[in-house]
């Protein structure tokens, strides 16, 4: 039974796997280039545009830096949770029958894998994009993120759109 579940791929599984692979490749290439090719740690913070800086932040927690883990047990526990999430999302991907759903799951899976690679390699996730709004007397910093995070958010938004808004959505008004 378990082998049947793992070996049965849906019509759009390949699209989701391709999206995941592209996200992992782009995410890891950008991180490695910024860390070692461009040497961002020596240049940060780097002002790119008004409201956009490149910085170096090592996130030892999960989204938005929640539940930071400094010890090896906590880091491996977070990595284990990511592996479980990717496996469950992968099973879901094999059952998706719509292109948007497969693409969304692929984006989420690729982002999770990209960040998991960081956690396994560095013990933390490398985040580098800082968006902010600044005036003469006030500044608001958005959280610091990376390409994997963008893919995860885009995947979640696409899943919500497909479920709630798309013309043939299951919950469309």
Automatic annotation (TrEMBL):
Main location: membrane
Cellular location(s): Cell membrane
Keyword line: Aspartyl protease, Cell membrane, Hydrolase, Membrane, Protease, Transmembrane, Transmembrane helix
Transmembrane parts of this sequence: 73-93, 105-134, 140-161
Topology relative to the membrane: Multi-pass membrane protein
Catalytic activity field: Release of signal peptides from bacterial membrane prolipoproteins. Hydrolyzes -Xaa-Yaa-Zaa-|-(S,diacylglyceryl)Cys-, in which Xaa is hydrophobic (preferably Leu), and Yaa (Ala or Ser) and Zaa (Gly or Ala) have small, neutral side chains
Main EC class the enzyme belongs to: hydrolase
InterPro entries reported in the protein's UniProt record: Peptidase_A8 (IPR001872)
Family: Belongs to the peptidase A8 family.
Record's function text: This protein specifically catalyzes the removal of signal peptides from prolipoproteins.
NCBIfam families found in the cross-reference section: lspA
Protein name, as recorded: Lipoprotein signal peptidase
Organism of this sequence: Rhodoplanes azumiensis
């Amino acid at each position: 039974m378990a082998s049947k579940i793992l070996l049965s791929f849906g019509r759009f599984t390949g699209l989701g796997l391709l999206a995941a692979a592209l996200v992992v490749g782009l995410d890891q290439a950008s991180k490695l280039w910024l860390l070692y090719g461009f040497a961002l740690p020596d240049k940060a913070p780097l002002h790119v545009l008004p409201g956009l800086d490149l910085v170096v932040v090592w996130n030892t927690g999960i989204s938005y830096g929640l539940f930071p883990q400094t010890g090896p047990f906590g880091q491996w526990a977070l990595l284990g949770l990511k592996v479980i999430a990717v496996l469950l999302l992968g099973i879901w991907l094999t059952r998706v029958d719509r292109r948007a759903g497969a693409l969304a799951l692929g984006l989420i899976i690729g982002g999770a894998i990209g960040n998991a690679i960081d956690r396994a390699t560095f013990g933390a996730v490398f985040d580098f994009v800082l968006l902010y709004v600044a005036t003469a007397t006030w500044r608001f910093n958005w959280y610091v993120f990376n390409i994997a995070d963008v893919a995860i958010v885009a995947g979640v938004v696409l899943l919500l759109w497909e479920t709630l808004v798309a013309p043939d959505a299951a919950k469309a008004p």
